[in-house]
From TrEMBL:
The lineage of its organism: Eukaryota, Metazoa, Ecdysozoa, Nematoda, Chromadorea. The chain crosses the membrane at residues 255-277, 297-322. GO terms for cellular component: membrane. This is Palmitoyltransferase. Belongs to the DHHC palmitoyltransferase family. Keywords: Acyltransferase, ANK repeat, Membrane, Repeat, Transferase, Transmembrane, Transmembrane helix.
Length: 353
């Protein structure tokens, strides 16, 4: 097995043999000038990397067609532990390859969220620029179909309205060019500018129209109407009106009051029907109920079921309020060890209350 294969497949005994015998050094490279550390990094061979570092290899060696470092290779593959090992041992975070990409650009392009977060935590600017003055957020919007890489960049302070130097595209432009609806939604939630135009005087909506991307057009037009940038029909104003009525989202008290009102109102209704029957029949029995007005009997049953159902929901809500737990925590207490505090399955407490 040659040195490159030993590094690729994590064959420590073979590498130790080669290093100790002097057949190779820790800085051995193949025909493409890729070092052993490159191959260990791309295959996430931590023990191999540690061995090479102990033998004083160059952690910033460049190789391959793109003249990349081992850190670039590990970032592209999303190997955060390998990236951390390299950085701890002197890897330069901002070193660029032949395309002008830092390891952060590579991680953002590949959707490697943990590596993105780690590199920024180690001092890499969240809006660092490549040769085309594109930021990691632009690459994430253009390349990644999952929300996490772009969202972590935005959370850590990425400028969602920054434009590159070649096309003057913002991240929203790049997401629209790629037809990346997930990235577009993420950027819209971050309140990006819908009116920014690029070098060709095109907004993101113009690009979507040119590409005949129906889904992107609908998304951008809906947000534009919401912000008052374009006119909306009466029907659109009604159907697209935001309704923040999720239970427990600033209206839990109103929900409790609603349940109490339903229980109280249905009980009064049931009492009125029972009083009506007693006034007519003097007493109640199953035979009498079968002979009475069927519609009135049906409404009595529906009202009673509603009262019982809402009363049970009210009891559960009050019980959860007293325990200071959410519905999710109560239903999944058996799965969360940090919530279960006693032998009794009802003895639960949320550490977040």
């Amino acid at each position: 097995m040659d040195p490159r294969e030993a590094a690729q497949y994590g064959n420590l005994p073979r590498l130790k043999e080669l290093l100790d015998s002097g057949e190779i050094t820790a800085n051995w490279t193949d025909s493409d000038e890729c070092s052993l550390l490159h191959w260990a990094a791309i295959n996430n061979r931590l023990q191999v990397a540690e061995l090479l570092i102990r033998h004083k290899c160059n952690v910033n060696a460049v190789g391959g067609v793109l003249r990349s470092t081992p850190l670039h290779w590990s970032a592209r593959q999303g190997h955060v532990m390998m990236a951390a090992l390299l950085v701890r041992n002197g890897a330069i975070v901002d070193k660029r390859d032949v395309e002008g990409f830092s390891a952060l650009h590579c991680a953002a392009q590949s959707g490697a969220t943990p590596v993105v977060a780690y590199l920024i935590a180690k001092g890499q600017p969240v809006d660092c620029l490549d040769e085309g003055r594109m930021t990691p957020a632009m690459w994430a919007a253009f390349k990644c179909t999952t929300a996490d890489p772009l969202q972590i960049l935005i959370t850590l302070g990425a400028d969602v309205n920054k434009s590159d130097s070649s096309y003057m595209n913002t991240p929203l432009h790049w997401a629209t060019v790629a037809g990346n609806l997930t990235a577009m939604k993420t950027l819209i939630r971050a309140n990006c500018d819908l009116t920014s135009v690029n070098r060709d005087n095109e907004s993101a909506l113009d690009i979507a129209v040119r590409k005949a991307d129906v889904a992107a057009i609908r998304l951008l037009e809906k947000e534009a109407r919401k912000r008052g940038l374009i006119n909306a029909t009466f029907l659109q104003k009604i159907t697209e009106r935001p309704v923040n009525n999720c239970i427990a989202l600033n209206n839990h008290r109103s929900f409790i009051l609603y349940l109490m009102t339903v229980v109280f109102a249905t009980l009064i209704f049931d009492f009125a029907i029972l009083s009506f029957w007693l006034d007519i029949y003097g007493s109640l029995s199953w035979e009498i109920l079968k002979s009475c007005d069927q519609w009135l009997l049906f409404t009595f049953i529906v009202s009673t079921v509603s009262a019982v159902w809402c009363f049970c929901m009210l009891v559960v809500q009050v019980y959860q309020i007293l325990l200071e737990v959410t519905t999710n925590e109560r239903l999944n207490a058996h799965r969360y060890a940090h919530i279960q505090v006693g032998d009794n399955k009802f003895d639960i407490r949320s550490p977040y209350s």
